Amino acid sequence: MSGRTADYDFHLPEELIASRALERRDASRMLVLDRKTGAVGHRMFMDFPGYVGAEDCVVLNDSRVIRARVFSSDGRIELLFLEEASPFHWKCMVRPGRKMRVGNSCEAGGVHLEVTEVLESGERILRADGEVDFARYGHVPIPPYMARESDSADDERYQTVFSGPEGSVAAPTAGLHFTKEMLSALPHAFITLHVGVGTFQPVKVERLEEHRMHEERYSIDAGCAGAINAAARVIAVGTTSTRVLESQPVGPVDPVSGATSIFIHPPYRFRRVDALLTNFHLPKSSLIMLVSAFAGRERVLAAYEEAIRERYRFYSYGDCMLIV
User: Fold this and answer.
1) Which fold has domain 5-65+142-323?
2) Which of 53, 116, 129, 314 would bridge with 280, disulfide CB 3.0–4.6 Å?
3) Domain 69-137 falls in which CATH fold?
Protein backbone atom coordinates (compact mmCIF):
# COMPACT_ATOMS: atom_id res chain seq x y z
CA MET A 1 0.00 0.00 0.00
CA SER A 2 1.20 3.52 -0.77
CA GLY A 3 -0.31 6.94 -0.31
CA ARG A 4 2.24 8.69 -2.49
CA THR A 5 1.20 9.71 -6.00
CA ALA A 6 4.73 9.11 -7.27
CA ASP A 7 4.37 5.40 -6.47
CA TYR A 8 1.78 5.01 -9.22
CA ASP A 9 4.10 6.16 -11.98
CA PHE A 10 5.59 4.05 -14.77
CA HIS A 11 7.40 4.61 -18.04
CA LEU A 12 5.51 3.80 -21.22
CA PRO A 13 7.24 3.81 -24.61
CA GLU A 14 5.38 6.28 -26.79
CA GLU A 15 4.92 3.80 -29.61
CA LEU A 16 2.66 1.66 -27.38
CA ILE A 17 0.02 4.40 -27.15
CA ALA A 18 -2.82 3.34 -29.45
CA SER A 19 -3.88 6.27 -31.60
CA ARG A 20 -6.31 4.26 -33.75
CA ALA A 21 -8.85 1.56 -33.02
CA LEU A 22 -8.30 -1.94 -34.33
CA GLU A 23 -10.34 -2.99 -37.35
CA ARG A 24 -12.39 -5.35 -35.17
CA ARG A 25 -13.61 -4.30 -31.74
CA ASP A 26 -13.17 -7.75 -30.20
CA ALA A 27 -9.67 -8.34 -31.64
CA SER A 28 -7.86 -6.76 -28.69
CA ARG A 29 -5.49 -8.70 -26.49
CA MET A 30 -6.49 -9.32 -22.88
CA LEU A 31 -4.05 -9.68 -20.02
CA VAL A 32 -5.61 -11.72 -17.21
CA LEU A 33 -4.41 -10.98 -13.67
CA ASP A 34 -5.26 -13.17 -10.70
CA ARG A 35 -5.42 -10.70 -7.84
CA LYS A 36 -4.92 -13.38 -5.19
CA THR A 37 -1.77 -14.95 -6.61
CA GLY A 38 -0.45 -12.28 -8.97
CA ALA A 39 -0.36 -14.81 -11.82
CA VAL A 40 -0.56 -13.26 -15.29
CA GLY A 41 -1.99 -14.88 -18.40
CA HIS A 42 -2.19 -13.66 -21.99
CA ARG A 43 -5.46 -14.11 -23.83
CA MET A 44 -7.58 -12.41 -26.48
CA PHE A 45 -10.67 -10.39 -25.64
CA MET A 46 -12.73 -12.93 -27.59
CA ASP A 47 -11.93 -15.29 -24.66
CA PHE A 48 -13.75 -13.02 -22.19
CA PRO A 49 -17.07 -14.98 -22.21
CA GLY A 50 -15.18 -17.99 -20.83
CA TYR A 51 -14.63 -16.07 -17.60
CA VAL A 52 -18.33 -15.27 -17.14
CA GLY A 53 -20.67 -17.71 -15.40
CA ALA A 54 -24.37 -18.06 -16.15
CA GLU A 55 -25.26 -16.54 -12.75
CA ASP A 56 -22.81 -13.65 -13.02
CA CYS A 57 -23.73 -10.13 -14.10
CA VAL A 58 -21.52 -8.06 -16.39
CA VAL A 59 -22.18 -4.40 -15.58
CA LEU A 60 -21.45 -1.84 -18.32
CA ASN A 61 -21.71 1.95 -18.62
CA ASP A 62 -24.02 2.89 -21.50
CA SER A 63 -23.32 6.65 -21.52
CA ARG A 64 -22.81 8.12 -24.99
CA VAL A 65 -20.04 10.60 -25.79
CA ILE A 66 -21.26 13.97 -27.04
CA ARG A 67 -19.44 15.84 -29.82
CA ALA A 68 -18.25 18.22 -27.13
CA ARG A 69 -15.19 19.78 -28.79
CA VAL A 70 -16.22 22.96 -30.60
CA PHE A 71 -14.24 25.78 -32.23
CA SER A 72 -15.28 29.40 -32.43
CA SER A 73 -16.48 30.60 -35.83
CA ASP A 74 -13.15 32.38 -36.41
CA GLY A 75 -11.19 29.27 -35.38
CA ARG A 76 -9.25 31.10 -32.67
CA ILE A 77 -10.86 29.58 -29.59
CA GLU A 78 -11.29 25.91 -28.71
CA LEU A 79 -14.02 24.91 -26.26
CA LEU A 80 -14.69 21.61 -24.56
CA PHE A 81 -18.27 21.54 -23.25
CA LEU A 82 -18.16 19.58 -20.00
CA GLU A 83 -21.73 19.82 -18.74
CA GLU A 84 -24.80 22.02 -18.80
CA ALA A 85 -24.63 23.61 -15.35
CA SER A 86 -28.13 25.10 -15.75
CA PRO A 87 -30.35 25.85 -18.77
CA PHE A 88 -28.23 27.60 -21.44
CA HIS A 89 -25.23 27.81 -19.06
CA TRP A 90 -22.33 25.50 -19.86
CA LYS A 91 -19.22 24.59 -17.91
CA CYS A 92 -16.38 24.58 -20.45
CA MET A 93 -12.63 24.19 -20.75
CA VAL A 94 -11.33 26.96 -23.03
CA ARG A 95 -8.09 27.53 -24.95
CA PRO A 96 -6.55 30.08 -24.91
CA GLY A 97 -8.02 31.20 -21.61
CA ARG A 98 -6.75 34.78 -21.94
CA LYS A 99 -9.24 35.38 -24.76
CA MET A 100 -12.19 34.29 -22.65
CA ARG A 101 -12.27 36.30 -19.44
CA VAL A 102 -15.50 37.37 -17.72
CA GLY A 103 -17.56 39.45 -20.16
CA ASN A 104 -15.73 38.20 -23.25
CA SER A 105 -17.71 36.32 -25.86
CA CYS A 106 -17.50 34.34 -29.07
CA GLU A 107 -19.67 32.67 -31.69
CA ALA A 108 -19.46 28.86 -31.55
CA GLY A 109 -21.75 25.91 -32.03
CA GLY A 110 -24.27 28.08 -33.82
CA VAL A 111 -24.84 30.31 -30.76
CA HIS A 112 -23.43 33.37 -29.04
CA LEU A 113 -21.49 32.49 -25.88
CA GLU A 114 -20.50 34.90 -23.11
CA VAL A 115 -18.25 34.16 -20.13
CA THR A 116 -20.16 34.78 -16.90
CA GLU A 117 -17.72 33.20 -14.45
CA VAL A 118 -14.17 31.86 -14.27
CA LEU A 119 -13.96 28.97 -11.80
CA GLU A 120 -11.03 28.30 -9.49
CA SER A 121 -10.17 25.29 -11.65
CA GLY A 122 -9.80 27.57 -14.70
CA GLU A 123 -12.98 26.29 -16.31
CA ARG A 124 -15.51 28.83 -17.54
CA ILE A 125 -19.27 29.16 -17.21
CA LEU A 126 -20.59 30.33 -20.59
CA ARG A 127 -24.10 31.64 -21.19
CA ALA A 128 -25.54 30.61 -24.57
CA ASP A 129 -28.34 32.46 -26.36
CA GLY A 130 -29.76 29.20 -27.72
CA GLU A 131 -29.21 25.46 -28.04
CA VAL A 132 -25.64 24.50 -28.95
CA ASP A 133 -25.67 22.48 -32.19
CA PHE A 134 -23.17 19.74 -31.36
CA ALA A 135 -24.27 17.53 -34.25
CA ARG A 136 -23.32 20.17 -36.83
CA TYR A 137 -20.37 21.95 -35.20
CA GLY A 138 -18.98 19.50 -32.65
CA HIS A 139 -16.08 17.07 -32.85
CA VAL A 140 -15.58 13.83 -30.90
CA PRO A 141 -13.24 14.75 -28.02
CA ILE A 142 -10.62 12.03 -28.41
CA PRO A 143 -7.85 12.23 -25.79
CA PRO A 144 -4.88 14.54 -26.49
CA TYR A 145 -2.36 11.69 -26.20
CA MET A 146 -3.59 10.39 -29.57
CA ALA A 147 -1.81 13.44 -31.03
CA ARG A 148 -4.20 13.89 -33.94
CA GLU A 149 -7.53 15.43 -34.87
CA SER A 150 -10.65 13.30 -34.62
CA ASP A 151 -12.18 12.07 -37.88
CA SER A 152 -15.21 10.17 -39.15
CA ALA A 153 -13.81 6.83 -37.92
CA ASP A 154 -13.88 8.11 -34.34
CA ASP A 155 -17.57 9.00 -34.69
CA GLU A 156 -18.29 5.27 -34.53
CA ARG A 157 -15.31 3.75 -32.73
CA TYR A 158 -15.12 6.17 -29.81
CA GLN A 159 -18.62 5.01 -28.85
CA THR A 160 -19.63 1.67 -27.41
CA VAL A 161 -22.07 -0.39 -29.51
CA PHE A 162 -24.56 -0.20 -26.62
CA SER A 163 -24.31 3.55 -25.94
CA GLY A 164 -27.56 5.30 -25.14
CA PRO A 165 -28.02 8.44 -23.00
CA GLU A 166 -25.76 11.29 -24.14
CA GLY A 167 -23.62 13.09 -21.60
CA SER A 168 -20.00 11.93 -21.55
CA VAL A 169 -16.98 13.89 -22.75
CA ALA A 170 -14.77 10.80 -22.69
CA ALA A 171 -15.65 7.23 -23.61
CA PRO A 172 -16.06 4.46 -21.02
CA THR A 173 -13.24 2.75 -22.85
CA ALA A 174 -13.38 -0.78 -21.44
CA GLY A 175 -16.75 -1.11 -23.15
CA LEU A 176 -15.29 -0.33 -26.58
CA HIS A 177 -14.16 -3.95 -27.01
CA PHE A 178 -17.66 -5.44 -27.00
CA THR A 179 -19.65 -6.38 -30.07
CA LYS A 180 -23.44 -6.72 -30.03
CA GLU A 181 -23.04 -10.43 -30.75
CA MET A 182 -20.81 -11.06 -27.73
CA LEU A 183 -22.95 -8.98 -25.42
CA SER A 184 -26.15 -10.78 -26.42
CA ALA A 185 -24.64 -14.04 -25.17
CA LEU A 186 -23.63 -12.66 -21.74
CA PRO A 187 -25.72 -11.95 -18.63
CA HIS A 188 -25.43 -8.19 -18.38
CA ALA A 189 -26.95 -4.94 -17.17
CA PHE A 190 -26.34 -1.24 -17.81
CA ILE A 191 -25.68 1.61 -15.45
CA THR A 192 -25.21 5.15 -16.76
CA LEU A 193 -22.39 7.41 -15.61
CA HIS A 194 -21.61 10.49 -17.66
CA VAL A 195 -17.82 10.56 -17.80
CA GLY A 196 -16.08 13.86 -17.14
CA VAL A 197 -12.63 14.81 -18.39
CA GLY A 198 -11.28 14.93 -14.84
CA THR A 199 -11.48 11.14 -14.60
CA PHE A 200 -8.47 10.74 -16.87
CA GLN A 201 -6.29 13.58 -15.66
CA PRO A 202 -3.17 12.83 -13.57
CA VAL A 203 -3.38 13.30 -9.82
CA LYS A 204 -1.30 16.41 -9.17
CA VAL A 205 -0.94 16.37 -5.37
CA GLU A 206 1.87 14.50 -3.61
CA ARG A 207 -0.39 12.56 -1.24
CA LEU A 208 -3.52 10.72 -2.34
CA GLU A 209 -5.56 11.93 0.61
CA GLU A 210 -5.13 15.51 -0.69
CA HIS A 211 -6.79 14.73 -4.04
CA ARG A 212 -10.43 15.65 -4.61
CA MET A 213 -12.35 13.92 -7.36
CA HIS A 214 -14.82 15.86 -9.48
CA GLU A 215 -18.49 14.84 -9.41
CA GLU A 216 -20.09 12.75 -12.13
CA ARG A 217 -23.80 12.07 -12.63
CA TYR A 218 -25.10 8.50 -12.71
CA SER A 219 -28.25 6.42 -12.66
CA ILE A 220 -29.20 2.80 -11.95
CA ASP A 221 -32.59 1.61 -13.15
CA ALA A 222 -34.75 -1.06 -11.54
CA GLY A 223 -33.75 -3.79 -14.01
CA CYS A 224 -30.05 -3.22 -13.41
CA ALA A 225 -30.50 -3.11 -9.64
CA GLY A 226 -32.38 -6.40 -9.70
CA ALA A 227 -29.75 -8.08 -11.88
CA ILE A 228 -26.94 -6.96 -9.60
CA ASN A 229 -28.74 -8.11 -6.45
CA ALA A 230 -29.41 -11.55 -7.97
CA ALA A 231 -25.89 -12.10 -9.35
CA ALA A 232 -23.45 -14.66 -8.00
CA ARG A 233 -20.61 -12.36 -9.07
CA VAL A 234 -20.55 -8.80 -10.36
CA ILE A 235 -18.06 -8.20 -13.18
CA ALA A 236 -17.61 -4.47 -13.67
CA VAL A 237 -16.66 -3.27 -17.13
CA GLY A 238 -14.49 -0.22 -16.60
CA THR A 239 -13.60 2.05 -13.73
CA THR A 240 -16.73 4.16 -14.34
CA SER A 241 -19.05 1.21 -13.68
CA THR A 242 -16.93 0.33 -10.67
CA ARG A 243 -17.25 3.82 -9.18
CA VAL A 244 -21.03 3.76 -9.52
CA LEU A 245 -21.32 0.32 -7.92
CA GLU A 246 -18.98 1.14 -5.06
CA SER A 247 -20.83 4.41 -4.40
CA GLN A 248 -23.94 2.51 -3.33
CA PRO A 249 -24.67 2.05 0.38
CA VAL A 250 -24.49 -1.31 2.12
CA GLY A 251 -27.43 -3.60 1.40
CA PRO A 252 -29.37 -4.39 -1.78
CA VAL A 253 -28.79 -1.98 -4.66
CA ASP A 254 -31.78 0.29 -5.25
CA PRO A 255 -32.80 2.16 -8.42
CA VAL A 256 -31.26 5.59 -8.00
CA SER A 257 -30.06 8.72 -9.77
CA GLY A 258 -27.36 10.86 -8.23
CA ALA A 259 -23.76 11.97 -8.45
CA THR A 260 -20.53 10.50 -7.16
CA SER A 261 -17.11 11.91 -6.38
CA ILE A 262 -15.75 8.68 -4.88
CA PHE A 263 -11.96 8.38 -5.12
CA ILE A 264 -10.97 4.72 -4.86
CA HIS A 265 -7.35 4.04 -3.96
CA PRO A 266 -5.44 1.69 -1.64
CA PRO A 267 -6.34 0.55 1.00
CA TYR A 268 -9.99 0.71 -0.16
CA ARG A 269 -11.98 -2.51 0.40
CA PHE A 270 -14.42 -3.37 -2.37
CA ARG A 271 -18.00 -4.27 -1.43
CA ARG A 272 -19.75 -4.68 -4.79
CA VAL A 273 -17.29 -5.68 -7.51
CA ASP A 274 -15.90 -9.21 -7.78
CA ALA A 275 -14.00 -8.95 -11.08
CA LEU A 276 -12.96 -6.02 -13.25
CA LEU A 277 -12.37 -5.60 -16.98
CA THR A 278 -10.41 -2.44 -17.66
CA ASN A 279 -8.04 -0.85 -20.15
CA PHE A 280 -4.44 0.16 -19.38
CA HIS A 281 -4.34 3.59 -17.76
CA LEU A 282 -2.17 6.68 -17.60
CA PRO A 283 0.59 6.97 -14.98
CA LYS A 284 -0.41 8.69 -11.73
CA SER A 285 -4.09 8.80 -12.75
CA SER A 286 -6.95 8.07 -10.37
CA LEU A 287 -7.78 5.12 -12.64
CA ILE A 288 -4.54 3.23 -12.03
CA MET A 289 -5.03 3.93 -8.33
CA LEU A 290 -8.50 2.35 -8.45
CA VAL A 291 -7.10 -0.71 -10.22
CA SER A 292 -4.29 -0.87 -7.66
CA ALA A 293 -6.85 -0.84 -4.86
CA PHE A 294 -8.59 -3.81 -6.50
CA ALA A 295 -5.54 -5.98 -7.22
CA GLY A 296 -2.66 -4.46 -5.22
CA ARG A 297 -0.25 -1.78 -6.40
CA GLU A 298 2.76 -4.08 -6.74
CA ARG A 299 0.83 -6.68 -8.72
CA VAL A 300 -0.73 -4.08 -11.00
CA LEU A 301 2.58 -2.39 -11.77
CA ALA A 302 4.20 -5.78 -12.36
CA ALA A 303 1.37 -6.65 -14.76
CA TYR A 304 1.91 -3.31 -16.54
CA GLU A 305 5.63 -4.11 -16.90
CA GLU A 306 4.67 -7.46 -18.41
CA ALA A 307 2.22 -5.77 -20.78
CA ILE A 308 4.95 -3.36 -21.92
CA ARG A 309 7.39 -6.23 -22.50
CA GLU A 310 4.73 -8.05 -24.51
CA ARG A 311 3.97 -4.90 -26.53
CA TYR A 312 0.35 -4.47 -25.52
CA ARG A 313 -1.44 -1.39 -26.84
CA PHE A 314 -2.25 1.20 -24.16
CA TYR A 315 -5.02 3.65 -23.28
CA SER A 316 -8.42 4.31 -24.85
CA TYR A 317 -8.02 2.41 -28.13
CA GLY A 318 -5.64 -0.11 -26.60
CA ASP A 319 -5.86 -3.63 -25.22
CA CYS A 320 -7.50 -4.61 -21.95
CA MET A 321 -6.87 -6.35 -18.65
CA LEU A 322 -9.22 -8.68 -16.80
CA ILE A 323 -8.67 -8.88 -13.03
CA VAL A 324 -10.25 -11.92 -11.39
Assistant:
1) QueA-like (3.40.1780)
2) 314
3) Thrombin, subunit H (2.40.10)
